[in-house]
Amino acid sequence: MVRHSSDVSRAPRTSVTLASVRSDSALCRTCLGILAVLAFTASATLDAQAADTVPARLISYADTAAIIVPDTVRLGQAFTVTVTAFAGGCIRTGGGSRVSIHGLVADVTPLHVRHVVGDACDSDRILFPQTISLRFDRAGLGRIRFHGAANRLNSGAQPQWVVIERRVVVR
Asked: Does pLDDT of 157 surpass 70?
């Protein structure tokens, strides 16, 4: 509908006056484009919130993760440690690890990927082994501190932190 100037002056201030049918269809296309962008952005945001990286669970009830560390390692050469942490529920994938080494102290945080689909997670418990490479560039008694969680992280709970320490001779 096209309004003439006499109609426009009597129109309430909250109404939108369109000059032609052509601009009406352009406005609809613009609105649809904006809605499509908003829907895509909202969908991407929901997907990002559905998966996140969390620290591995090193303690589960009365059980502690199996941590295998060699007794002695060579100075300047890489060696591996294995952490068999607890997973299950919404955690089915490893997420790598964070490693920081300062002198003879290594801080290691094994990571898992929590992927929530829907409103619930399985109530199973699985063991999840991860092998991590370390290297000390100084001789002496090395300390390896494994950082992780002591609670289930399926429902978005904040981690209850725990640190388990092992020692290794560096020659």
From this structure: no
Q: Read off the amino acid at residue 132.
A: I
pLDDT score of 156: 61
d(CA 110, CA 106): 13
Looking at residue 14, the DSSP 8-state letter turns out to be T
Q: With CA atoms as reference, report the closest residue to 106 among 129, 73, 84.
A: 73
Q: Give the torsion sign (CA, 108, 128, 170, 145).
A: positive
Distance CA(168)–CA(141), nearest Å, equals 6
Give the pLDDT confidence score for residue 143 in this predicted structure. Answer: 98
Q: Which amino acid is at 79?
A: F
**Cβ-contact 167, 144 below 8 angstroms:** yes
Hey, is 132 helix, strand or coil?
strand
What is residue 107's three-state secondary structure?
strand
What percent of the chain has pLDDT above 90? Answer: 51
CB 137 within 8 A of CB 170: no
